[in-house]
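2024-03-11 09:14:02 DEBUG pipeline.ingest accepted 1 chain
2024-03-11 09:14:02 DEBUG pipeline.ingest length=242
2024-03-11 09:14:03 DEBUG pipeline.predict start
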Amino acid sequence: MGHNNPPSEMEILRERLEAHVEQKETLERLSSKEIPESVDSEDEAGKITDHIKLLKVLRGDIEKIFKQEKSPFWDCCKAADEWKNSYWKKIDASIADASKPVLAWHKKKEEEERQRQLEIARKAQEEAEKLALEAEAHADAGIVDTADSLMNAAVQEDEKSRMIAQNLSNGLSTKSVGGFSTASNRKPWTGRLESRPALDLEALRNYFSDDALDKAIKSAVRDGVRTLRGATIFQENKLSVR
């Protein structure tokens, strides 16, 4: 193979596939046959039909070789997948079990922090109302400068209370720090199917790939659908050679 290392599995497979020279020679012979653009007799049509049949037979032979050569590698892949999945299943279960108390702890810390922030917001709102009343009293007494200062302070306290409430609506984040790791609560939005009949497919229109839609169209046509807005339904003209 050009080096002193043993051949890799890929090199072994390629060598085994290239050893099937008979099929390669057959394909070269069949693909080199000139096919006329049109036929003028039943004899010509019959000869081309035989040619197509030979190509189909070769295709079947290639399929058999493919399965034969692929089988041991496919079995190895499945064995490797089973080995990995057996470990992952146990690891994921252990992670889930270990995550429960940490998630609960983070939730507890978040609630404590939320209550602390709500108390700050409550006191800020009370202070804003108190300052506003004092500002009003000073304004009534004609002490305008002091009234303005008090009103500005009231506005600041009110804004403080409002911002706390707004940030709390966006959620809190907590984390735990270990010797070599950190854990934090993520809250990604997700979804799952609840009712297939009730699902709003129109809202999902932009999230279906063209391939997925094409597959759905073909399935619908196989089930007898013959009219479908946005799709062209037609009969293909294919040659059947047996």
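2024-03-11 09:14:41 DEBUG pipeline.report The chain has a mean pLDDT of 92.
2024-03-11 09:14:41 DEBUG pipeline.predict end
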